[in-house]
Structure formats: structure tokens, C-alpha cells
Amino acid sequence: MKLPHPIPYQGSKRNLADQILRFYPDNFDRLIEPFAGSAAMTIASAYYFKADKFVINDINEPLTELWDIIINSPKSIIKSYHDIWHGQHGNEEEYYYEIRDKFNETKKPEYLLFLLAKCVKAAVRYNAQGGFNQSPDKRRLGRNPQMMRDDILRVSQLLKGKIKIQSVDYSAILDSATTDDLIYMDPPYQGTGLNGGFNYAGNIEYDNFVVSLFDLNNRNIPYILSFDGRTGNKTFGSPLPDNLNLTKIEINAGRSSQATLLNRKEITFEAIYLSPSLIEKIDLQKVNRTQIYQTELFANHG
User: Fold this and answer.
1) What's the whole-model pTM score?
2) Which of 248, 245, 246, 224 is nearest to 235 (CA)?
3) pLDDT single digits (tens) 74-94
4) Which of the four CATH numbers 3.90.1150.30, 3.40.50.150, 3.90.950.20, 3.90.220.20 does domain 17-61+165-300 have?
């Protein structure tokens, strides 16, 4: 069964989640996503019993309000989506723009869900004034209400009572982390999906973010960072300082859609970076597993 994902989102890590999960430590207190977006890693972690406490944060407040309703009041958002979706028939394009105007005026999360399900390539765009300005995908009606209902209910079952939802600056979330937590970060301003994700208010500055990473290292906080990638010989994103001592892992993300359009067989690789404290935990796990295996082997031949 596929992982439930009620929020379509360009650049979501849902298709790479199983590969990223391999680098989790065996035991930790909470999974924290400071740049939640579609919360793909939180959903995957709950689905595969990797954690039972979660914190998601996003500076986009209507998005976090939407997550709160999906998780804690699923029936209300299911009904709202059903009613909004069915209102478009016979007038799809004009109706989309009407909903977009309503969202920009009210910031109501039910309007946001419809826009996310209907906009071009699930690629969210905001203008300089903070207004949602992505166009509709004219070839489709958006996610079917029955499919949306199923995913919303499944996510609610996975996360209700286990999650804290916030909408603050990412630095405040990082400051709250402890050595018993695991942080997964997928900042919106890096990686192969440079045009994906929300335009964050105030723009996250590279230098400030790097300082935050040094602080996490100094506090021995384990984290995984999705940060850059490459397609063929083309690299995306600014390099991270070597003295962060991060371990880089490249994950095969499949054939590039852009390359496919241009008739080129190029594979996209997305990079994740593992913090020094996470590497220590993972290496310790390997040592412990080896010792257990050797002990069992010795016992069997004793």
C-alpha cells in the first residue's frame, strides 16, 4: 500500500522516503521537520514505526493550519474539499481563479487544499505580496475527493495525538531540539527542485542557515539534511562548508523529467547530508549488531 499523501507538493521526498529512512538511528525521541511542506518524512516515519512523536513546522501558516485540520478534524476538511471540488464542473478554469482569490483574501486552509490539488505540477508559487499565483492544470480536475478522503483519514490515524504543529521561524524549532531527537530538514531554497515549494517570508539566508548547522553540531543534535543534487553534470545548490564535517550520500531519484522532455537519458541524484552525531549513532548500531551476531555465532558453536 502506498504512503498516504493528502498534500501534493513539488519536490516532496515521498518517493525517496524509504531510502532516507535507512539512515535513521534505531532509537530517538521525536522526529522534527522544521520545513514541513508535505511532511513526507513525518508520514513515512509514522507509517513504518520509526518514531511515535513528531514536530512539524512551516512558516506558511495556512499550510500548518491545513495540517492541523487534516490530522485533528479530518471529517471537516474532507467535506470542505468534496464541496469545493464538485463546484468546479463545467466552469473549471474560472472557478479555480475564484477559489484562488478567496484563498488570497481569507487564507482559509480548505481553499489552499483545492489549489494544491489542482495547480500546475503541484508547484506552489507565491508573488512578492504573498499571494498564491500559480495557474491551474487545465488537463485535470485535481485530486478525486474519494482518494483525498482516504489519504486524509489514513494520515489522521497515523499522527493524531502524536504530533505538535507550529508555524514559526525554523531557528526557533532547531533551538528546541535535544540530543534525543532526530531532525530532518528539506529547506525550500536548495536542491534539484529550485522552483518548488513555498516562497518563504523574508527569504532564508544561506549564511544564517549554515550558522544554525554549526550550532546543531556543537550541541550534538542528530540531523539529516536534503540540500542539493545533480542531473548529469549539472549541480544544483551552493556547497556546504567542509568544516561542518557532514557525510554526503547521493540518492538516485530516477530519470529527470526535464531531461526526458529533451530526449536525454539523465538521472537525477539528490544529496542528503548526515550530521556527525548521527553518524556516531549509526556506527554504534553497526558495532552492536556485529557484537550480537558474533555472540550468537559463538553460542551456536559452543
Assistant:
1) 0.86
2) 248
3) 999 999 999 999 999 889 999
4) 3.40.50.150
